[in-house]
Design a protein that fits this description.
It is a single chain. Helix 1 packs across helix 2 and helix 1 crosses helix 14. With 551 residues, the protein is an alpha+beta fold. Strand 13 and strand 14 form a beta hairpin. The two termini are 26 Å apart. It has helices at residues 2-12, 14-33, 65-79, 132-146, 179-194, 219-224, 229-240, 274-282, 332-345, 378-408, 411-422, 425-438, 447-478, 482-509, 518-543; strands spanning 52-58, 85-92, 115-122, 153-158, 169-175, 199-205, 211-217, 243-248, 257-261, 285-287, 293-295, 300-306, 312-314, 317-326, 350-356, 359-364, 370-376. The chain is elongated. The strands form five sheets. Strands 5, 6, 13, 14, 15, 16 and 17 form a seven-stranded antiparallel beta sheet that branches. A four-stranded antiparallel beta sheet has the order 2-3-1-4, covered by helices on one side. It has a two-stranded antiparallel ribbon with strand order 7-12. 47% of the residues lie in helices and 19% in strands. The chain contains 15 helices and 17 strands.
Length: 551
């Protein structure tokens, strides 16, 4: 057999055996180097192609509903002509009906005139030529450029492919002596995040200071004007809020139908200025007991007050969240760039302390205030998942090593089997690079890819044990030399091994294009193919000097 002769020639020659080691080592190093060079990128899960997405609109606190409406109308005008969009639903002053994303993004808590949400339904996946996440990327730039009226913050929200989190990147900022100092520090962090090319939809989840206007009724003037005080209060309430005044009983309705009374749309203000409020009040008049019309603006006093900020906390520690989403990129890479910029740009004003993994602490050199920055969101889930899967992989290798030690009574043979299993990472990485080249979007090494890699350990170990056991049998029963026995065993076992490999490849090809499990399929394809090469050439070389010790 040609394969047997070729393997035997490698085993007989020290130079050829060394060349196998060298080629394997070079391929392994080059494969690992694809991570720091970003040729291979890691991500928890790739983006999900869905049939809907949302747009969240946040104006400055205190903005009027009319201003919010203008922004919403601008957004609708910019996106409604896209052929992939079926319909748009807008919700102003409230959140949209809860979906998977809104459950963790606090949509149900929205009740301000400065907030709005849009729900956009798009064509089914098979009826469009673009993925939903690429469509969002295409629409985002035009909408944010043309519709950021009144400094509106416009965020495009997609259904999460992975764990439901507040955002892809969440920076939790703790510390500071006051809310204002904590918010000022959050502004600096947000600006650094904005400098990253692939980070979008940056938002600071903290209230801005703004003026509130309270209407205080002048009781003395009301009495002198002969106006009923309760009537005045009711009219003011109807003018700005409205109320339920009665119900209608209908036999076809399951419950009573409320009658809601309010003045016309003049109840809303054109803007949030004091002058708009005064104009509104001047248009409201009441008739006194003598039949005279009295202007309401003469009976109330407008008081200005500063809106107290909403304080958020986690584990009873006050904090501010700065959130960001990624645009066609993994979370870890722009975050590392942003972290490097934080260390560089803030070191002049702050003493920077590296606290835990990526987290940082900043101590103001002037005020001695300490700010702790903790990274959360999908980024943290990604890091935790890869650490856990990496730990599972190491445990699997250790368990297989000790199992082989118990079976062969040899640490060297067991180490060779484990090493040959680990080398299959070369095929996993090469397969991901090839998929990245032939697909339009970045093909990430995902959590499912690592699951596939862990699963390959057993397959590779089985291939190695087949060759070792058969070689041992040939030496003991046929009296062959060790190198000759290994070459013959490897060539003989090549057919069942390649059949196993091809079965795995064909089965894994069915899920290679799946959005979630594509990484698993590609890892199994690349890993099993390279495991065949490793079994044919690397395993024979690594066991030839150790086989005689277990005979």
């Amino acid at each position: 057999m040609k394969l047997e002769k070729f393997i035997f020639s490698i085993l007989q020659s020290k130079q050829k055996s060394f060349l196998v080691y060298l080629i394997t080592f070079i391929l392994f190093v080059l494969s690992v180097l694809t991570f720091p060079t970003h040729i291979t990128k890691a991500k928890m899960l790739p983006s999900k192609d869905s049939d809907t997405f949302s747009i969240y609109v946040d104006l400055k606190d205190g903005s009027s509903i009319n201003q919010t409406k203008q922004v919403v109308q601008c957004i609708v005008k910019n996106i409604q002509n896209d052929e992939n969009i079926i319909n748009i639903s807008a919700f102003m002053g409230v959140g949209q009906p809860l979906d998977f994303a809104a459950l963790v993004k606090q949509s149900a808590l929205k009740n301000k005139e400065s907030q709005a949400e849009l729900m956009i339904n798009i064509r089914k996946q098979e009826d469009r030529d673009i993925t939903s996440y690429n469509l969002v990327t295409k629409l985002r730039d035009d909408v944010q450029k043309n519709c950021s009226l009144y400094d509106a913050n416009i965020k495009f929200i997609e259904l999460p492919a992975g764990p439901p989190v507040l955002a892809s990147i969440v920076t939790e900022i703790y510390g500071g002596k006051t809310f204002e100092s904590r918010r000022d520090f959050a502004l600096k962090i947000a600006q650094i995040l904005k400098n990253q090319a692939t980070l979008v939809d940056i938002d600071i989840l903290a209230d801005d200071d703004f003026l509130m206007y309270e209407l205080e009724v002048n009781s003395s003037k009301v009495i002198m004007s002969k106006i009923d005080l309760d009537q005045l209060k009711n009219i003011l309430y109807l003018a700005f809020e409205g109320m339920n005044v009665a119900v209608i009983n209908d036999k076809n309705a399951q419950s009573q139908i409320p009658i809601f009374l309010r003045l016309n749309d003049s109840r809303t203000l054109n803007n949030s200025s004091k002058e708009a409020l005064i104009t509104k009040l001047e248009n409201l008049k009441l008739m006194n007991t003598e039949g005279n019309m009295i202007n309401i603006s003469e009976l109330v006093t407008i008081k200005e007050s500063l809106k107290e900020p909403t304080i958020t906390s986690k584990n009873l520690n006050p904090m501010i969240n700065v959130i960001a989403e990624t645009s066609k990129d993994s979370q870890i890479y722009p975050l590392l760039n942003a972290r490097d910029e934080m260390l560089e740009s803030l070191s002049n004003d702050y003493e920077v302390i590296k606290t835990n993994l990526l987290n940082l602490a900043f101590i103001d050199k002037k005020t001695n205030e300490r700010f702790d920055l903790v990274f959360d969101g999908e980024l943290k889930v990604t890091i935790d998942t890869f650490i856990d899967l990496g730990g599972a992989f190491i445990i699997a290798l250790v368990l297989i090593f000790f199992l082989m030690v118990m079976y062969y009574k040899s640490f060297a043979i067991s180490g060779g089997i484990v090493l040959s299993s680990f080398i299959s990472i070369i095929g996993v990485i090469i397969a991901h690079i090839i998929m990245d080249l032939i697909t339009t979007d970045t093909f990430y090494l995902t959590a499912t890819s690592l699951i596939g890699f862990i699963g390959l350990i057993g397959i590779n170990s089985r291939n190695s044990t087949l060759i070792i056991d058969f070689s041992k049998q040939l030496v003991e029963e046929k009296g062959l030399g060790i190198n000759e026995a290994i070459a013959k065993a490897t060539a003989t076992r090549s057919k069942p091994i390649i059949l196993t490999v091809l079965t795995m490849v064909f089965a894994s090809a069915l899920i290679a294009n799946d959005a979630v499990f594509g990484g698993l399929g590609v890892a199994l394809i690349g890993g099993t193919l390279i495991s065949y090469v490793v079994s044919m050439f690397f395993v024979p070389v690594i066991i030839k000097n150790q086989l005689k010790k277990i005979l």
